[in-house]
Amino acid sequence: MPKLDLQSIQQVNRTGYPSPFDREVAGRWYRRLAPPSGLTDFGVSHVVLKPGAWSSQRHWHNGEDEFLVMIEGEAVLVEDEGRTLLRPGDCAAWPKGSTNGHHLRNESDQDCAFIVVGGGTSTGGGYSDVDMIFTADGKYAHKDGTPYPEAKRS
Amino acid sequence: MPKLDLQSIQQVNRTGYPSPFDREVAGRWYRRLAPPSGLTDFGVSHVVLKPGAWSSQRHWHNGEDEFLVMIEGEAVLVEDEGRTLLRPGDCAAWPKGSTNGHHLRNESDQDCAFIVVGGGTSTGGGYSDVDMIFTADGKYAHKDGTPYPEAKRS
Question: Which residues of B lie inside 8 Å of A (Cβ-Cβ)?
């Protein structure tokens, strides 16, 4: 049945972020929904943020549109212009190439959850608040291009 | 701000379905979210179904992946295998080319709402329960290819 059995899809909190940028996403638990569904036109993730967790470092994508809808709890969207509270049913969209970095922070005392959709093919992107970029092949580097050591993926 | 102001985005219930197939979708009120957001990698709609309304005739897409997440209320997903109740946070996915037609019916006495994402470029599709197909350029025809008269778009 095309209704997804979320519980049967592996939920992980792994990240390739180098230390210490990995700390804020340790409480980000996500499921990749497209591969088990057979979808290839876009990526979809179901993401749970534990209290205190961030969705990512504040970032943008050079070549991929991004869309998010909150489905449970509350999170604060942080962008260049400031902070916006997101509640269930709230939607946000980031067209590719905008360098207005964004992320969500769960500042509440309960889990929150959202669905995020990403299109296109990765061409890398940047981070607003830390000395980091990500490359088209998913590696992390300083803004001057020097690679970070790769995180262990255990 | 990338949080979308849904109330500022036009909500419509128009359809190109020929009569009488338009009747079941008269209570389907939708907003196209990608154009006002500047997204081009995929399409996104915010859809409200009034009590009794269907999301569409039961259909499939030949060449576009589709993903849905419920955000409010309840609806019944109908497919070849039967009926599945969808509640807020439930997700469903339909890979392109599967001819297992699907739609949602609001059989409750309250509005329901969902977000649906569609990828790729339209290459048409089919309907499971009525004598109709849709073409790559968005026109409706009988299964033998004879076009239906085009609906007035007022």
Answer: 1-4, 6, 33-34, 37-42, 44, 46, 64-65, 67, 69, 71-72, 77, 79, 81, 84, 86, 88-96, 100, 102, 113, 115, 117-120
Cβ B3 vs Cβ A92: under 8 Å: yes
pLDDT of A84 over the 80 cut:
yes
Which chain B residues are closer than 8 Å to A64 by Cβ? Answer: 41
Token pair listed for A55: 């969705």
Beta carbons within 10 angstroms of residue A22's beta carbon: 15
Using the beta-carbon criterion (under 8 Å), do B1 and A79 form an inter-chain contact? yes
- Whether residue B71 contacts residue A88, with contact meaning beta carbons closer than 8 Å, is answered with yes
Q: Do B2 and A93 lie within an 8 Å CB cutoff?
A: yes
Mean pLDDT for A31-43 is: 96
pLDDT in tens, B9-22: 999 999 999 999 99
**Distance of residue B149 Cα from the nearest chain A Cα, in angstroms:** 32
* Distance (Å, whole) CA A48 – CA B29: 29
Sequence length of chain A is: 154
What pLDDT was estimated at residue A109? Answer: 98
What pTM does this model have?
Answer: 0.95
CA–CA dist B35, B56 (Å, integer): 21
Q: B31 - beta bridge partners?
A: B46
Give which of B98, B41, B118, B70 is closest to A4, Cα–Cα: B70
pLDDT in tens, A50-66: 999 999 999 999 999 99
The percentage of residues in chain B with a pLDDT greater than 70, rounded to a whole number, is 97
The overall longest dimension of chain A from CA atoms, in Å, is 48
State the number of CA atoms in the 13 A half-sphere of B102 facing the CB.
Answer: 27
Q: Taking an 8 Å Cβ-Cβ cutoff, which residues of chain A contact chain B?
A: 1-4, 6, 33-34, 37-42, 44, 46, 64-65, 67, 69, 71-72, 77, 79, 81, 84, 86, 88-96, 100, 102, 113, 115, 117-120
